Amino acid sequence: MTLTQLSAFVMVARLGSVKDAAKMLNVSEPAVSQALTALRQHLGDQLITRSGPTMSLTTAGVKLLPVASQMVALGAEAQAAVRAGQGLPEQLRLVTTSSFAEFVAGSLTDAFSRRFAQPVEASAGVAAEDEMAVLVVNRLADMAIGPLLADKELVCEPVFRYHIVPVASPHDPLKGGPASWSWLVDPTGTDPASDVSRLLAKLAVPENRIRVFPNATAAWAAAASGAGVALGVAHLLAPQIRRGELKVADTPATPMEATWYVTTLRRERRPAIAGSMRHFLGTPEAMKLMRSPGSGVPPSKFRPPVYVTIWS
Predict the structure, then answer these.
(1) For residue 180, which of 113, 176, 213, 308 is within the disulfide window of CB 3.0 to 4.6 Å?
(2) Over the stretch 40-70, which tens digit does the pLDDT of each residue have?
(3) pTM of the model
(4) Which residues share a beta bridge with 233?
């Protein structure tokens, strides 16, 4: 029985999907399936069974899950201890929403690294809301910044309030109501639990009127060219609106208030660097960066927020 096998089991059990587990562990689906099969053979139990589109744990799987989660977390702590013993920089792994990663995470982690007393190797990755809690609980990420996450093992605190607004080209008047417009969204729009998805549902926008772009910058550029209406964080859109490249579109549901929350493990299990980052997020410098982060860093510049070395 190995950490690879236990990690595969925990991710599949928590996320209910081999595909989602593979994405979170940054490996192929066959790799996850093979690890899960090996664990089943070693323990002599199916652990997870499938009934149509849903997965469920066997009685043995239910008993194994908390133990396996603890072992995976201890594996992450062991690796961190070895890195410290080797004198390597301390790791800070964030998992965030798409827009936060695109515009804020880079500036924020750079500023934190400059203030931290020791060298820091910071990285950020993007995940859906239901995936964030799984990553933090199982020590595959040190901290989540984004939506409110509910889990008894986590502490979730608000750090920054903002507004979501729709924007369109100032040169193309919108016709009809919001449900008939073409809506341009970043990957957050594919997450049913996200604020963006809830806003589109409130406006009764049908799926065939929604187009997904690789990031917010691309969606805003398409909106500026007259391709439709994009959604974004109001203060991040402010420069384009001031320059006259975009205008705010009026809808019955906007501006929509939302909040960035910071989520970590409970204090007794929280990595020290996550506690330091949490403290930094309350400083005037961090608040200024979240309000006006500058050019930002594209998500492609970030590494995955997981310990992929457990698969080597």
Answers:
(1) 176
(2) 999 999 999 887 777 889 999 899 988 888 7
(3) 0.79
(4) 164
